[in-house]
Specification:
The structure holds two protein chains of two kinds. Chain A is an alpha/beta fold. Chain A folds into two domains: 241 residues, no CATH class; 140 residues, 2-Layer Sandwich (GMP Synthetase, Chain A, domain 3), CATH 3.30.300. Chain A contains 13 helices and 18 strands. In chain A, the strands form five sheets. Chain A has an eight-stranded mixed beta sheet with strand order 6-3-2-8-9-10-11-12, with helices on both faces. In chain A, strands 13-14-15-16 form a four-stranded mixed beta sheet. A two-stranded parallel ribbon of chain A has the order 1-7. Chain B is globular, with a radius of gyration of 20 Å. The mean pLDDT of chain B is 89. In chain B, helix 1 runs parallel beside helix 10, helix 5 packs across helix 15 and helix 12 packs antiparallel against helix 13. Chain B has a two-stranded antiparallel sheet with strand order 1-2. Chain B is mostly helical. The chains are: A alpha/beta, B mainly alpha. At the A-B interface, helix 8 and helix 12 of A face helix 6 and helix 11 of B.
């Protein structure tokens, strides 16, 4: 009896010990940072901007991100906090002393780094610091922004009542169906800036104030490659103020250039990560008209690299397929022979796009196409590979791309009849 | 001598597999990557093969003295004093390994999960569980290991399967890593990774004879080799060799990297579960091994008075390392590289002496 009593008391005592861990905190004890911006400081080393969405009850669920239609500026003032500090940890400590909750980065969706910091080569220093930080996750998106990260974060507003965190995640995930931005994460950034095999391409973002949408002018002045611009330059007005478009090229931890949305698509075609994308080419028989084509990858790209000479010879074979979505010229491209004409034009279009992007990468001495991944397979040991020095060889490499494109379908229309008017048949 | 219950080979194999494989969840994969680069996944198979070979010497000793454990055999072959001295060295070694593994667990847990908890708090709670299990006995520990191995196996497979979208084949190249010579040398030296199979010598009396011990040891090493190789293989495909060796817990980082849409992410808790239970069984097995040897040396028939003092000693040993770097690059590395000297060499030495001195036990029946 006595033993049982002692055991019972002991178990009750143990249950007190195991009721929670030492670090236990309730969800409400934390302020969850959804985005963090990093700019160069004016009075201290860094200017950090935190977006901390307010959690509030909306209907039966919990909402965040100021999606209640209230005064947006007031919400931004409440949710976006900027401070200057020497390090993230100190910044967090300062904020923790002024807000009644503990900052938590476990659910952070994006790290925004200003272009100025990225170009100064300080990104590596910052990234290495952040990677050690326990709460920051490798799957967080990284965005290099035109202007300051502070302005960028302040410009982010929830779209159509959604959550800001959701918006950012959706934007990043959408990339595989547009190809205008790369799909690398914070962990990729860390791995790639230290890699002798691959280099880093980062999402490029900017605040678009809508001024690129010209209200007057001389009108359409000929075909332009769609998507061939950077974030902040797209002719868009209305909707979200921020946009992700194109990519920032890194040589090690230093941003050395940018790729437009179109060029980023070319890189993704070679990476084999472009699931589906819309392209628009000039109509070969009616140059003032265009033909939009929805393109899909048919096979993974085949990359061959000949390393027998000093200059690596890179050969890429790409197989794409697609559907014509519109033929404004009403030329009978549905016909098998005409079909082939269009296929050849599209093949040349992609080939020239890839070559143009390759030349840009070569000029910047950065293997943004990850050809190093193929080259490394030809080496038996790491010392051999590192001695070969791919990063040094890539800029002198010779490149050749062969694109094969097959038109599968022509939309709901399989034949085009001319328009008939009082002036007769077109 | 302690009286322990008997248990089957499934229980014993589970115990050995968990005790060995748990090391793959901590800093070992990073160290292996630093040593041999991309060749880690097959280097560990070399280690397993060497460990299996070394284990066969232990089996030969146990076969020669059927029905005896290694401490009794040491006494018979080397004499009471020298035999006890050798057993005592092994006892101290097991206790040190248990303390280092426990400290490694504490440090990793503190870095990733419980940053605010004092290390002594984590250690005390952990030690409480180990001590409780030691009171329950070896049979309970073995049966508990068998019960958990299915859950732990499922957790491990889930983490690996969910990481498949992050696998990149090119990260396994150059296939020979830092060179075949380094892979073979490190593979041989790091057979200590599988040294916990030597625990079978201590618990031999609880098992069904030398043949079964051989089966348990070889299966245990084989299964642990596959698990460790698979974890190194998958980790090698998720992280490039240039940064993989920087990670404090690569398998945890691998689980944290899982991102399958908006809902299937933040899967580290599965891994924390794996961590906790495997470490708990590993440390408990080593602690119990040390306890059994100690009780044998000093002819103590009741283990209970020894458990708490030995637990206190384990706690104190835990406090010796200065910090995480001291544990990882100092103690853990030394034991992984040179541990085989104490894990395997004594049984070879005892076998040679037994042959020279023509010492032999009763032959095994059946």
């Amino acid at each position: 009896m006595g033993k049982k009593l002692i055991l019972s008391v002991f178990i009750i005592f143990l249950s007190l010990l195991f009721s929670s861990c030492f670090d236990a905190r309730e969800v409400g004890d934390y302020a969850y940072v959804s985005m963090m911006g990093i700019d160069e400081g004016v009075t201290d080393k860094l200017r950090l901007t935190f977006h901390i969405p307010e959690f509030k009850i909306s209907g039966s669920g919990t909402d965040s991100g100021g999606g209640d239609g209230g005064d947006e500026e007031e919400i931004t003032e409440k949710e976006v906090i900027t401070l200057e500090t020497s390090s993230l940890l100190t910044g967090v400590a300062i904020l923790n002393s002024s807000i009644p909750k503990l900052l938590n980065f476990m659910h952070m969706k994006a790290i925004i780094v200003s272009e100025k910091i990225a170009q100064s080569g300080k990104a590596g220093e910052i990234v290495a610091g952040l990677m050690r930080y326990r709460q920051i996750r490798g799957i967080t998106s990284v965005i290099i922004c035109k202007g300051t990260a502070q302005e960028f974060i302040r410009a982010i507003k929830p779209f159509q009542g959604g959550l800001i965190t959701e918006n950012i995640e959706e934007l990043a995930m959408r990339s595989e169906n547009t190809g205008f931005i790369p799909d690398f994460t914070f962990r990729d950034m860390y791995n790639r800036i230290k890699s002798p095999t691959t280099q880093f391409l980062c999402n490029y973002g900017a605040v678009n104030d809508g001024k690129n949408l010209k209200e007057d002018g001389s009108g359409f002045d000929g075909y332009k490659i769609p998507g061939d611009y950077l974030a902040g330059d797209t002719p868009v007005k209305g909707g979200p103020k921020i946009e992700l478009f194109g990519s920032a090229i890194f040589d090690g931890d230093k941003m050395v250039g940018t790729l437009t949305g179109f060029e980023t698509q070319m890189v993704r075609i070679i990476h084999g990560t472009l699931k589906r994308a819309a392209f628009t080419i000039q109509d070969p028989l009616s140059p003032d008209k265009i033909i939009p084509i929805e393109v899909k990858e048919f096979e993974k790209p085949k990359i061959k690299i000949d390393l027998s000479e000093y200059k690596p010879k890179i050969h890429v074979e790409i197989k794409l397929e697609g559907d014509i979505t519109s033929i404004p010229s009403r030329i009978h491209y549905e016909d098998l022979k005409m079909n082939q004409v269009l296929e050849q034009v599209f093949e040349k279009f992609i080939e020239s796009g890839i070559k143009r992007t390759f030349l840009k990468a070569q000029e910047l001495k950065v293997d943004i196409f990850d050809f190093g991944r193929t080259a490394i397979r030809q080496f038996w040991t790491i010392p051999q590979w590192e001695e070969y020095n791919w990063v040094e060889r890539f800029p002198v490499s010779e490149f050749d791309a062969k694109v094969t494109f097959t038109i599968r379908r022509t939309g709901k229309i399989i034949d085009s009849e001319p328009i008939i008017s009082s002036e007769g048949k077109e | 001598m302690l009286k322990e219950g008997k248990f089957g080979y499934k229980e014993a194999t589970s115990l050995i597999v968990i005790t060995i494989s748990s090391k793959a969840f901590f800093t070992s994969p990073s160290s292996v990557t630093k040593l041999v680069g991309t060749a880690g996944w097959y280097m560990t198979l070399i280690s397993a093969a060497v460990a299996a070979l070394m284990f066969l010497f232990l089996y030969l000793v146990l076969k020669r003295f059927s029905g005896k454990n290694i401490m009794e055999i040491n006494d018979i072959v080397l004499g009471r004093f020298a035999g006890s001295l050798l057993s005592f060295v092994f006892c101290a070694f097991l206790l040190i390994i248990a303390s280092i593994n426990m400290r490694e667990f504490t440090e990793i847990l503190k870095v990733f999960v419980l940053p605010e908890s004092p290390p002594s708090y984590i250690m005390a709670i952990f030690l409480l569980s180990v001590v409780s299990l030691a009171f329950a006995g070896l049979e309970t520990l073995a049966r508990y290991a068998k019960l958990l191995i299915y859950l732990l196996g499922a957790g491990f497979i889930i983490v690996v399967l969910l990481s498949i979208p992050n696998f990149r084949m090119h990260r396994l190249f150059p296939i020979l890593g830092r060179g075949i010579d380094k892979t073979i040398i490190n593979g041989i030296l790091r057979c200590s990774f599988y040294g916990d199979a030597a625990l079978l010598g201590i618990i031999a009396v609880s098992l069904q004879g030398a043949k079964e011990i051989k089966k348990i040891g070889l299966y245990g090493i084989f299964i642990s080799g596959l698990i460790t190789s698979l974890s190194l293989f998958s980790f090698g495909m998720v992280f490039p060799y240039s940064t993989a060796h920087e990670l404090a817990s690569p398998m945890y980082a691998m689980a944290a990297n899982v991102h399958l849409g908006g809902f299937l992410q933040h899967l580290e808790p599965i891994f924390v579960f794996l961590w906790n239970f495997t470490s708990f069984i590993e440390v408990a097995a080593l602690f119990y091994g040390a306890l059994m040897i100690y009780c044998h040396i000093f002819r103590i028939t009741d283990k209970r008075p020894v458990i708490l003092p030995m637990g206190t000693l384990l706690f104190c040993l835990n406090l010796i390392p200065k910090g995480i770097h001291d544990v990882f690059s100092g103690y853990v590395q030394t034991i992984r590289t040179w541990g085989w000297i104490l894990y395997f060499l004594p049984s070879i030495f005892v076998l040679i002496i037994a042959v020279i001195r023509k010492k032999k036990g009763a032959s095994e029946s059946g």
